[in-house]
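User: quick one, fold this
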Amino acid sequence: MKYSVHALGFCLGATFGSARADVTADIAAQNARIDGLLKDVAPLIAPLQVSKADVRVFASFTPLATAIAGLNSLPATQRTVVLQSTAANGQLYSDNGLCNSYVELQGPRDLHAEGALSNFNASIQNDGSVVFSAHAQVAGHAQLHWQFKGKRGLFNACPPGGGFGGSIGANATKDLDLQIQIGFALAPGGQAVSYSAVIVQPRQVNVTVSLGIQYLGNIGFPVAFNVPGGALATGQFPLLIANGGKLVIPGTSGPREYAFALKPTSFTANKVGVALEWNSIVDFKTAAIAPLSPSR
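Assistant:
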């Protein structure tokens, strides 16, 4: 019987020892897993750490890129840009050398164009700029009135009468790949972020316009024009931080005014996002000295 009890104690001790070893192994495995996760997280949180600044603003580009890509799921009617004239104000073309011959819209609603947009994408560049791209299927129609008054002759005089004219129907279709790049920088004074948008593509548009001329039928007329360069749009994103106010300090005669100033220390724009850091300066204006009470 003693032998059986000793055998049972040995078995229990071996079981508990094995369980303890399994728990120790599990703890070691979990610690190793945590160490691995910390190594993965460290480079992700590094841009968010602040050690040498009082104020830091960080804007990630990830939500922006996700929102732009989400435009592709919208119905076609919500991805279509429509241009419709409502008035025929002035002339589209006039030539003084041809006695002010001109071309104008025939009626107030005789210009219509539609552009169906697709393939939306936002690509973040290494310098922190964002390239927005899309494909556009453009179709347009215009009904025009033209009037030819002749060519200037002797003494720069025009022929008598008002000349002759007619009506032209113009139609055009074009597929375009559009790219607009927006860059970011620290605004002068360091209190805001400035942006500038430029058209990257296309730099030139070539299209064949179908002209329907009275008595002559349709005639294809190739047209090419350059897309204007330079900034398409510029502006600033101001900080939502008050630069002054009043503070009541116990023991003083009244509220003391203070000025809050931010001195920029760094600006970074990369594929992760835009980060700005400032040191702050708070300047309290000298409180008014309370008048001394008359001595007794």
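User: anything notable?
Assistant: The chain is about 20% helix and 50% strand.
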